[in-house]
Structures are given as C-alpha cells and as structure tokens.
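Thread: "does anyone have the structure for this chain?"

Original post by V.I.:
We have the sequence but no experimental structure in hand. Need at least a predicted one for the grant figures.
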Amino acid sequence: MIHLSAHQMMENLISPFFITVRVLDIIDILLVAFLMYQLYHLMKGTVAINIFVAIFVLYLFWLVVKALNMQLMSTLLGQVMGVGVIALIIVFQQEIRRFLLMIGTRYMTRRFSLENLFSWNIEAAHKVQIKAIVNACITLSETRTGALIAIARNSSLQTYAETGEIINANTTERLIESIFFKNNPLHDGGLIIAEDKIYSAGCIFPLTENPDVPVHLGLRHRAALGLSEQTDAFVIVVSEETGSISYALNGELKENIDPKDLTNRLNVLFG
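Reply from O.Q.:
Generated one for you, tokens below.
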C-alpha cells in the first residue's frame, strides 16, 4: 500500500512534465503566432501598439488576480475586460479596417480569381516596361518634377484607380513625363500601372498614419507609404524639392536611390 502511494506520488510529480501534444495543437499555436505577428506588423510604428501593450499587460494582471483569488479586484477587472471588446473596436477601428483591407487585397489576389484559375499565362500580368519607367524617372528627377507611380503586383488597385482618370494606354516614357508635367491637371495625383498599361492617373492614395515618418517627407512620400502598407504595390516617388528617387514596398521607404538600383529592384519584381 505504501509502495502504491509512493508510485502515485511519483506519477503526480512527473506527469506535468509530459504533456501530450497533438498535430492540431501545433497548428493552433502556429496560427495564433501568425495572427499575432500580422497584428504587430500592422500596428508597428503607430500609437496603437502602445495601447495594445497596455491592454495586454492589464489582461495578464487580471489573470494573476484571478489565480490569487482576489475577489474584489478580480470582479472589477472582469467588468473592465467584459466591455473591453467594444472598447477595442472603438479604439482600434482604423487598424481593424486596415487589417481587413489587407486580407481582402493582399491575400485574395487576382491570381486566385476564376478567370486565372484555368489560365496558363501567369507571369504575363507581371511584365512591365522597366526601361520606360526608369528613363521617365531619370528625366523627372533631372527636371525636379514631382511624381508618384504605383505599379500593381498581386493586390487589386481598382479602388484607387477609380479616384482618378482611366487612361488604359501603353506604358511609354513620354506619356509618363507628360502626365506629371506641372501644367497637366493630373500631375498632382498618383499614376497606376497595371498589366503593362498606364491604367489610371490623377489617383488619390491613402496617407500613412505612421507617426515615425520623418518630417521632411511630403505628401507624395506619405501617400506612397500608405498605399504600400495597404497593398503589395511597388510605389515610386520623385521628389519635387530635391529630385531624389525613392520607392515604397510593404510599408518601408527606401530614399535617395540611383537609377541602377531602381532598375535592379524592378527586374527582381517584374523582370
């Protein structure tokens, strides 16, 4: 009887260290980790990340209070966490909108549409006139003519294209330069290139809400960042003040690049 009790005690001591892990448990952990990473990437550099950390710390404190069986504090925090869902929707409404928009535009792309499901020509949609775009950027840079050019990849830019004038013309150096000529009524907006066509001009792009963006960057750079945060488009900016060339991709801005670097980057993405 004593031996049996000792055996049971030994099992009780050892059993917590041997946890049964199923394949579904691993998938569950990976999915949660992926969602947490996407949320962090979405809120990184914004004020929302500080609020999110504060709420997470408050939630951990609530769990500790419950574990210590502190009834009064646990009840108060429980009431706060109970209405916390509504508060989170109100506080993070912009981030939630961006997250849903990112899912809808970045992952539900054209390559999964029915019209491309049975198509064998997959790479054709990604071809662009790299030489014409780079040469136009060089000319615009030399004349210090501001420009904002978005090149579509997988995300649909139709919503933004409809804010401008639909052109649907061949991509040529002279046409790009003429669109951004200062007396052209379309020069203040963005230019969208999709499927090797200048699809739309004079478009309105969303501005980034990242508070860490350097103050010297103007509206074109902020619009380039904003569009690259919400889509996977490759956005080129030519500064009207300095003539420098920059590009934005996946929410990151590369400033003061030379035409060779721009050509190499375009070849990697669209060549």
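V.I.: this helps a lot. Residues 23-43 form the longest helix (21 residues).
O.Q.: and The radius of gyration is 26 Å.
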